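quick one before i forget lol
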Amino acid sequence: MSSTHQAPVQLKDYKMSATQLEPADLIAAAEKLAPLLREKAREAEIARRPLDEVIDAIREAGLFSLMVPKRFGGHEADIDTFFEVSLILSRADASMGWLVSFYLEHSFWFCGFPEDFQEELFANQSYVLAPATLNIGGGKAKEVDGGYRISGRWQWGTGIVHANWVLVGALMAGEDGPPAPMFFAIPRDEVDAIDTWHVAGMCSTGSYDIEVDDVFVPEKRTVAMFDLTNATTTSKIHEGPLYRTPLIPILGFASALSMLGAAQGALEEYQTQTKAKIAANQQRAGGTIKDEGKPSVVASAALTINAAELVLRDVLREVMEYRDDATQAMRGSWLSRMAHAIFMCRGAVQDIVSVTGASGSRLESPIQRALRDISTGSNHVLFDREVRYADYGRTLLDQPIQSMMV
């Protein structure tokens, strides 16, 4: 059904028990939330931020605790559940799927911070809503008694609108070596959000800039970047395979699944619209079918999107099999294949838009929104195509990869 014909969704439809949920329950909750995200997608895009009622519905459904350990009241669901939930939400609204996926995996980031801080963090809630910045060059850290003083400004603060914490990266000057990249956890009320979010796509993520002005961060709220990305600290604190999973592939899925969802949503919308046109033409023309669908174009797009999903699911299988035992070359190949799947999806959406006719240019069109979202989201720094393809080429030639973001 076209998003313009969805019946209003009541928040009470999504209220679920606060108890720990099994993977099937979490996937079912995402399915129930999808109509709400689809219905509110254009309104959120115009607002340039996530809507309160949508965030409240997701909160009530219990999804934000998906990757948090059970000892802290979370569901401790593995990345295969994360994969399904993120894809379902992204199919309904890629921008909101992106936002929620980042919220979920950023709670996973906190699981690598010092244990005493985690115990405080999760004492009264089973999740954290936090943006996290990869641009460690955006800030500076100065070591002081008991911790650090942080200053800087970072772009792409996805999640800042409803955040209660913020994760920022900065370089810590070393006495005997190069500056060390570190992450710092700061309460939301100690940072400023700067509304710079005037963009062509992913509008409803509300990814404002984050500014920090000489804020003190205790030692227990810091972690070395590579300890976190390699699951070194996470695996020492928490048991279970989820917490042996490197962080970057999980971040990769959060981004890639939103793009796959955008493509699948565009294809589904195109099918719905075109079938309606064909039915109308059948009535007017006495049973003959006018070729409204450009079948070969949409078939190629559908096959490409299906292939992209298979690529991502194959990467998921490998990540869950190898976890932190994977070599750097394997981890590099995971990101390269994710990037390839994203650009397959982007090309497929461009092809779908090419056969939608003039109506495909309307801003309220879900297909047009999918194009805007995927054109913007596919530019995430993690999926720099030239870098990822070059790394994969080196792997094929038994040469070391150069990217540190694996």
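fyi The first strand starts at residue 139 and ends at 144.
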